[in-house]
Each structure stands twice: as structure tokens, then as C-alpha cells.
Specification:
alpha/beta, Rossmann fold, 9 helices, 207 residues
Length: 207
């Protein structure tokens, strides 16, 4: 094992409840039915446009407008959250073993860097890979280009995330995936894959 690719939102940053809170407010403003937190965990998906289509009326307000409205609320509030328990300790454990920790996120690169700087955690990662817009589409192309440029064997990578999209990314890249069950998707949706509810379990998985 040479690299661990870490998702950020919901995996490292504990932001699922914030995202649900913003969703509820925005749905109310749109005159749409709101959803409970458990319902959110059951419907959240990537690309975000597909998930939004389940709860919004795009004929009334476009996805682009909704995505921009969300990020304008999310980004400042995302600087007042916490990181998931033990995640940095585990990241540092693997770094001491010579494994490169790479941050791979569907977040827009500048927003991602702002969050890393605020929480003072950028130095934990050898590389930070975000995207070029706020639409939170797929991370596959970003990761594939990085793997090619760095000449990394995909079979030597573990991707750690919290959604089925992370599993899709891992499958597309040809690497292993481990899903964290306290992020943006309900644990019942993640049972087809290796999953953990405490990051310290990763140490045993990788022995």
C-alpha cells in the first residue's frame, strides 16, 4: 500500500448535519417538502444534481442557482464544525509508515484550501485534489489524471470515503475502498463494501 486517498466532506469534516440544515432551509424557501436527517442520509447522492432533482423543482429554480445558493451558505458555516474523531491520528499513523495521504474532494479547490487552512490540517496531506467548480460532480477524472501523472499503481491505493460515489470512484480507478458510516449516507446503504464506524479500525484493516 503506497497511498490513501481521503474524501473530505463527511469523511474528515463532520458536516452532514450542517448540509441537512441548509437543505431544510432552502426547501422551505422553495415551498418544497422538507426532509428529516435520516431521510437526507437515504437520498443524498452524487452527482449532487441528481440528489437535488429528488427534492427540488428545477423548472422553478435551476440547479446552478441552487448550487450557488447552497455554497454561499455552506462555506462560511463549514468553518465552525469539527473533524471526525481520531481521523488525524490515523492519517499521521499511516504517514509515519511512509504511506502518502492524498485529499480527494468534489469540492471546489479554493473552497477546499480555505477549509484546510482554517482547520490547520493541510500539512497532513502530500497532495490536495479538488475540482474546478461548485457543482460537486465526479472526482474520477481528477483522481485518474493524478494517478497517471504520478505513475501510481491503482492496486496500491485505498480510497476512504463516506458515500457510494466514493465506491464508484474506487471501482473506476481500480483501487480498494473503505466507507465510513458516519458521513452523508445511511449505513444501510453502504453494506456492500468494507465499512468502518471508527477510523482506528483502518489500522487493523491495513495490517
Amino acid at each position: 500500500m503506497t497511498h490513501i486517498f481521503w474524501d473530505f466532506n463527511g469523511t474528515i469534516l463532520d458536516d452532514a448535519r450542517l448540509c441537512h440544515d441548509i437543505l431544510v432551509d432552502m426547501l422551505a424557501e422553495e415551498g418544497q417538502p422538507t426532509v428529516s436527517y435520516d431521510e437526507y442520509l437515504m437520498i443524498f447522492d452524487f452527482p449532487v444534481e441528481a440528489y437535488y432533482a429528488k427534492v427540488y423543482d428545477f423548472s422553478k429554480t435551476s440547479f446552478d442557482v441552487l448550487a450557488q445558493r447552497f455554497i454561499e451558505r455552506y462555506q462560511p458555516q463549514s468553518l465552525h464544525l469539527k473533524l471526525h474523531d481520531h481521523v488525524l491520528t490515523v492519517i499521521d499513523h499511516f504517514a509515519r509508515q511512509g504511506i502518502q495521504n492524498v485529499l480527494l474532494s468534489a469540492s471546489e479547490q479554493n473552497n477546499l484550501l480555505e477549509q484546510l487552512e482554517h482547520y490547520g490540517i493541510g500539512h497532513h496531506f502530500a497532495h490536495v485534489l479538488g475540482t474546478s467548480n461548485v457543482h460537486a460532480a465526479s472526482k474520477i477524472d481528477v483522481a485518474r489524471q493524478f494517478i497517471t501523472n504520478q505513475k501510481i499503481d491503482p492496486s496500491a491505493i485505498i480510497l476512504v470515503g463516506d458515500t457510494l460515489h466514493d465506491a464508484e470512484v474506487a471501482e473506476a480507478l481500480g483501487c480498494r475502498v473503505v466507507l465510513y458510516t458516519k458521513g452523508h449516507q445511511h449505513p444501510d446503504r453502504l453494506t456492500a463494501y468494507d465499512n468502518i464506524d471508527d477510523f482506528r479500525q483502518l489500522i487493523d484493516i491495513m495490517k
